[in-house]
Design brief:
This protein is an alpha/beta fold. Helix content is 43%, strand content 16%. It comes from bioreactor metagenome.
């Protein structure tokens, strides 16, 4: 059986984190000799660590990561701190590579799975097959053409590149035509039986008062980089003014919580908008909600849309890059609105109707773990 090193940047409670847990457990169940390496130790935030029944080696200790974060946070104070930050990026990469090399020398793997392209600077130096994952529309975080081309050049060092949607693959192939021979699309895997089982769990006593209300729901990081809370809140105010008789709940947490609370405070119907924090089981909220909404300026894939479709018949999303249009089949199994169009979103909050359950179920089979893991197995064994 092949020996594999599975490398990822972190193991926090994120959509990407849950996907890597699915892949990790599949490798274990299939009997592959797999070593799990995580770049950054986030201490108590390593929520998903318990879901991988194998030891995990962190390349950056918790203390080391905190020091790197401190340097990053101070980088704009003066030119000296900016230089120090730039030097630290190079030093941190060298540190990660050195730690990884110890694992590589010990394991002598047949395959390196680099789930976040953490080793893209020198992945071709390893004498084994290398597979990278691209999780989002790269044009959203690499703004200049030169940065895109540098990134594409680095990706050419991998043997195979997995894109989480056809749209992401198309963009990558356009940036560098040489990548087309290496890129493939594999959707993120979803264990629908597990999602539906969790969706049927009871609400606890503290949650019940919120769950008993009629409510719209967004499950998301509290992050203004890619999540469009301004459009969400404006649309909700309009919907309330036009007779919507429910609440708006946001399940999730993140670094921009205070900014989003301030944004909420400016809304006329702020008392009807509740930030409920992170939930270990968001699926029962997805099932109970009146309508599920994703309001983003861009997405990696939009995992929450697939999860919501598994348990709810009325799913609404901004038509952002990349993923929602592909997931919702251009509006066949859900509703799309143009990014920033709060009036259209308000109309959907009021008027969107449930879509045929059999139609949704037939469509989302393409995301099932059974389908995706067979594609993953083929990739590993080719």
């Amino acid at each position: 059986m092949k020996k594999i090193i599975f490398l990822s940047s972190c193991i926090k409670l994120t959509g990407r984190g849950k996907v890597q847990v699915e892949y990790a457990n599949y490798l274990i169940q299939q009997g592959y000799s797999t070593e799990f390496a995580i770049v950054d130790d986030y201490g108590d935030e390593n929520v998903l660590e318990k879901n991988i029944p194998r030891p995990i080696q962190y390349l950056n200790s918790y203390e080391y990561r905190l020091e790197q974060q401190r340097i990053r946070n101070e980088r704009n104070k003066n030119i000296i701190k900016k230089i120090k930050f730039n030097l630290s990026l190079h030093q941190n990469y060298k540190h990660v590579v050195a730690q990884f090399n110890e694992i590589y020398s010990r394991i002598k793997p047949d395959i390196i799975i680099d789930f976040d392209t953490s080793l893209r600077g020198n992945i071709n130096e390893y004498d084994c097959k290398s597979i990278a994952w691209i999780h989002m529309h790269i044009g959203n975080w690499l703004k200049s053409e030169s940065a895109l081309k540098r990134y594409a050049k680095a990706l050419n060092r991998y043997d195979k590149i997995v894109c989480v949607s056809d749209e992401v693959k198309k963009e990558l192939d356009t940036v560098d035509k040489k990548l087309a021979a290496k890129t493939i699309s594999i959707y993120n895997p979803f264990n629908f039986n597990n999602i539906q089982q969790l969706a049927n769990e009871e609400f606890d006593e503290n949650e019940q008062q919120f769950a008993n209300e009629k409510f719209l729901l967004m499950v998301s990081r509290l992050d203004l980089t890619c999540k469009d809370y301004a459009t969400l809140f404006k649309a909700f105010d309009i919907a309330k003014e036009n007779g919507y008789d429910g609440q708006l709940y946001v399940v999730g947490d993140g670094d921009h919580r205070n900014e989003i609370l301030e944004m909420r405070s400016q809304m006329k119907h702020k008392e009807n908008i509740q930030l409920l924090g992170a939930k270990t089981n968001p699926y029962k909220w997805m099932k109970r909600c009146d309508k599920f909404i994703l309001s983003s300026t861009f997405e990696g894939f939009g995992n929450v849309l697939v999860e919501a479709l598994a348990v709810n018949d009325t799913v609404i999303s901004s038509d952002c890059k990349a993923g929602p249009d592909e997931i919702l089949e251009s509006g066949k199994i859900g509703y799309l609105f143009k990014v920033g169009d709060f009036q259209k979103l308000a109309d959907l909050m009021i008027g969107a109707q449930p879509i045929s359950r059999p139609m949704i179920d037939a469509s989302i089979k393409r995301f099932s773990s059974e389908v995706i893991m067979q594609q993953f197995k083929n990739l590993i064994n080719e």
